Amino acid sequence: MTRSNPQESPRHPPRAAKPPKSGERLQKFLSRCGIASRRAAEELIVQGRVEINGKVADQLGVRVDPFADEVRLDGERLKMPAKRLLIVLNKPVGFLCAASDPEGRPLVYHLVPKDQALRSIGRLDFNTEGVLLFTNDGDLAERLGHARYAVQRVYEARVRGIPSEETLARLRQGVRLEDGPARAEQVDLVKQTDSNAWLRLTLTEGRNREVRRLLERVGHPVVRLRRVSFAGVTAAGLALGQWKTLEDNEIEQLRTRGHIGAFELPPDPRRKAAKAPGLSTGPGPSDAPQRRGAGRGQAVKKALPIDSLPPPKRPSRGKRPAAPAGRNARGPSLPPPSSRGRKR
């Protein structure tokens, strides 16, 4: 019986190679159109709000051709922006960071171009002024707006009363709010009068009304609040209500480093995002791990490597260790009984 050559008559014929999928994923296309981040775009797809060539796309992983396919969101056709755009607006007081308002209040989108599919990166309160960024790149908005990237936000707040050094230290150390502990990475007293003071605070989370809640928690409510810097971007030279576009090299710095210019604070080792180069984070705690239940400032000593520990002391052969004291202590050891005189 002769055995056939497997190369001449294979048991399983080779499979035909699948043609590569063309186009890009639908959630990435929505993100590039400035609709939302990729994660938020996935929710829009699952909700059945996106159509491709007249058919509802309710499954993830669908690919589209940005130049051939017709993609609509809630019936409105989407187009790929010709260029990545990022705008800095010097937001005035009395404008709402929302796409619409049932009360008819003025919106920040009335101050920026409407034909570029822009959306704001984070928000500012109705009564807060200062730097507010807009972009048509969903990935860039996610990169700068999400708390896990710890992008620096610098505020100047006029507060009631004169905060003491203990109060400033408390803000740096952290206070507990309704949604968890919060802290200012850096806080300085800039100016003071008889009844109030100006503070400069640097934060990296961007929670809702975080600065106001922090200062109210320590007994110094905010009278006036403005954001002077976001990821190193300032509103220098802009009057309230004016905007300008950022240069391509500045946008690239924001995409790769999360910041423009030099960092004001060193990296924070507590955050996982601090491992990436160029992230804007604040100073971290001491290297010594904190013990549960220990008071502030108390730390557990670091464990030494095994090679550096001295060998344990062993008692000499001629001496026995002393018996432990106590009611359950064992008495001195007796010699074993002799076998002589035993009855068999």
Walk me through this protein's architecture:
There is one protein chain. The chain has 344 residues and is an alpha+beta fold. The protein folds into three domains: 24-77, RNA-binding S4 domain (Structural Genomics Hypothetical 15.5 Kd Protein In mrcA-pckA Intergenic Region, Chain A, Roll); 81-142 and 237-285, Alpha-Beta Plaits; 153-230, Alpha-L RNA-binding motif (Alpha-Beta Plaits), CATH 3.30.70.1560. Helix content is 15%, strand content 20%. It is built from six helices and 16 strands. It has helices spanning 26-32, 38-46, 138-145, 165-173, 210-217, 248-256, and strands at 24-25, 50-52, 55-56, 63-64, 71-73, 76-77, 86-91, 119-120, 129-135, 153-160, 175-177, 180-182, 186-192, 196-203, 222-230, 243-245. The strands form four sheets. Strands 7, 8, 9, 10, 13, 14, 15 and 16 form an eight-stranded mixed β-sheet that branches. The protein has a four-stranded antiparallel β-sheet with strand order 3-2-5-6, with no helix packed on it. Helix 1 crosses helix 2 (38-46). The longest helix is centred in the N-terminal third of the chain and has 9 residues, at 38-46. The model is unreliable at 12-20, 272-310 and 326-334 (pLDDT under 50).
